[in-house]
Amino acid sequence: MLRGMTRHTPLNGRTILITGATEGIGRATAAELAGRGARVLLLGRNRQKLAATARQVGAAAAYRADLSELREVAAIAAEIRRREPRIDVLVNNAGGIFAPRQETREGLEMTWALNVLSPFLLTRELLPTLRGSADPRVITVASDAHRMARLDLSDPEHKRNYRSWPAYNASKLANVLFARELARREPWLTAATLHPGVVRSGFNSNNAGLQAALWKVVDLFALTPEQGARTSVFLAGAPELPQSGGYWAQSRLTAPAPGALDDGLALDLWETCEDYLRRLGL
């Protein structure tokens, strides 16, 4: 941990928006940050779960959107801008793995849409509210799965040969590259990605068959959501972070895979995301 950071560092006065906040790591992150005095905002898909989580953690507000649908992301970002004059920390926590290949209502492969384009768009649209903070931060939950990834921007939706794990791994590499390019483009904020560990968080529970069955075995040995949330909480609350665009694990700055340090690939990813959003009129 950085000097001066303890488990109970107070966060009074800080407004923190967390996506995927109704279960698993997101809910544990929200509970811990609210317990430290932060003004916590929740963003999730299920209205009933949002209301229940907001009551449980004492959230200041809850916003509903299906983050796999990019027009909904843009619309909820506009609503948040209207209602929230300042956001200090954005935690891009929502994500998933999908077997077999699925497409959103907008015709995009689900992993690419939810894990990559959605946090890219939400961050872009909330930059005006982040500018109101004296110490703005964008934290994106990635994974050490990025170390096994190959990111092919000629086919980011894996139309030619879809397999769930390579698609997921590539999306996590994209998250790390996104933070690196965000830090370069927006030096006034601090960007970070992190590996939460293997967490018993409901991950993979949306799938069926052998993949879901095997993950239930993995869950027997996995971290609790509270343990998995520790690095997100640390990055949101540390008095200062030594590097923007860095990759963190166990609350420590960690070297990512060599491919995650490719500035040319980071730029290409950024431009690819912008092209996708232009095609959707966003």
From TrEMBL:
Keywords: Oxidoreductase
Superkingdom per UniProt: Bacteria
Example GO molecular function: oxidoreductase activity
SUPFAM superfamilies: NAD(P)-binding Rossmann-fold domains
Full protein name: Short-chain dehydrogenase/reductase SDR
